[in-house]
Amino acid sequence: LGYSLAENYVFTKEAFDDYLDHLDEDGRVAMLLHDSSDLLKTFTTAISVLQDRGISPEQALKHMIIIQENMGMEIPDLAHFPLFILRESPFTREEASDIFRTALIMNKRPLFIPYVYEQEPYSLIGPSISLEEFISSSPISLKPATDDSPFFYNFYKGIPPLMGVLFLISSSLAAIFLIPHYFKRKKRKIEDSQTAPNIFHFLFYFTCLGVGFMLIEVALIQRFILFLGYPTLAFSVTLFSILLGGGLGSLTSNLIRKRRIRKISWIVLGIAAVVLAYIFILPFLLDRFLSSSILIRSLVAMTIVFPAGFLMGIPFPTGLRVLNDFFPEDITWMWAINAVMSVLGSVLAVIMAILLGFSWALLAGALAYILIFLRFRSLEKVY
C-alpha cells in the first residue's frame, strides 16, 4: 500500500494534457500498464482530459486503442500488461481496421479498437452512461489523478485502510494525552481568569500548532516534488528550508519580551496569510522556473519556503514562555501534546491530499493558525 500511495505525476490529467500538446498530427502516446485497474484509471483520465478539451465522451473513444498480448483467455474485461494508445486526433475507420488486422497477425488481443472492436466496459461511456456515472459505479476508485492529488495507484474509495488505521492510532494517542489532562485541570482557577489565559487556551494553542505545522510542511514537500524532479531532493530542500527558517525564527523569538500574546496573534495570522498566498502564487512561480537548472530550482524552492519556516518557528518557543508565566509545571505536558498532534497532522495531511488535494491540506494548515488568532485575540490587550 505504501508504494500504491506514492505520488506519480506521469499519469495525472496535467501530464496527459502536456503529452497531447506535444504530439504532431499523427503522433501517439503509448503506455504499457500493469492490469485492469491501471488500464481503467488511465482510460477515465484520457476521457476526462479530452472532455475538458471540448470533445464528447463518445467521440473521445475514437482517440484511443487498447490491445494486449494474447494470453489465451476469453474474459473480455481482464487485462494483463495492456498497451494503451492515445492520439490527439481521432483514428479513422481505415486506420482502426489496419491496426486490428496487424494486431491479429502479431498474435495480439484487442481490448478496444474504435469502429472494429468496441467491447464493454470501454464502450459504455457516451451512449450508455456519462464519465461521472462510469467512475461512481466502479467498485474501485477511477477518479483521475491530478498534480494536486497525484495518487494514481490509489484505488480505494474514501480513506485507504492503512491511512484509516494510522489516523485512529494517532487520534487515540492524542486523546490519551488530552482527556486526562482535561479532567486534571478542569477545576484549576487562576487570578483574574476572565481576562488572563487559562490552561485550555494553551491546550488549544499547542494542538493547533502541532497539526497546522505538519499540514503545511507535508503539503509544501509535495508541491516541490514535480518542480525539483526527485522526491528525495524535494524532501531535503523543503525540510532544510523549514528547519533553517524555523531555527532562526525561534532565535528571533527571544526579542519578543512584552505583550507576547498580542504579538503571537499577529504572527500566526501572518503565517496563515503566507500559506494562503502559496496556494494561489506557487503554481505561477513554479511554472516560471520549471525549465531552469536544478541548482536554480533548489534555490527558488528554498527562497519560497524560508519565510513560512521563519514565521512558524516563532509561536512555539514564545508560547512556552507565556505558559511559563502561568503554568510552568505544564511545559513538559504541552511539549508532549504538540508532538502527538504533529503526528496526527502528518497523517491528516496525506488523507486530505488523497480525498481533496494538497491545496486543501495547505488551506487546513492556514485555518489552524487562524483559529489561534481568533482564540487569542481577546487576550491581546491584557498580556
Summarize the structure in words.
Strand 4 (108-113) and strand 5 form a beta hairpin. This protein has 383 residues and is α+β, with helices and mostly antiparallel strands. It has a 5-stranded antiparallel β-sheet, sandwiched between helices. It has 13 helices and 5 strands. The relative contact order is 0.12. The protein has helices spanning 13-21, 36-52, 57-60, 93-105, 131-137, 161-185, 199-228, 231-252, 260-289, 294-312, 315-326, 331-355, 358-376, and strands spanning 28-32, 64-69, 83-87, 108-113, 117-118.
How many distinct helices?
13
Strands of the widest sheet, in order across it, are 1-3-2-4-5
In whole angstroms, how far apart are the ends?
49 Å
The radius of gyration computed from the alpha-carbon positions, rounded to a whole number of angstroms, is: 26 Å
Uncertain spans: 1-5, 189-195
DSSP E strands, number:
5
* Sheet/helix structural class: alpha+beta
Shape: elongated
Oligomer kind: single chain
Helicity range: 55-70%
Proportion in β-strands: 5-15%
Mind describing the biggest β-sheet?
5 strands, antiparallel
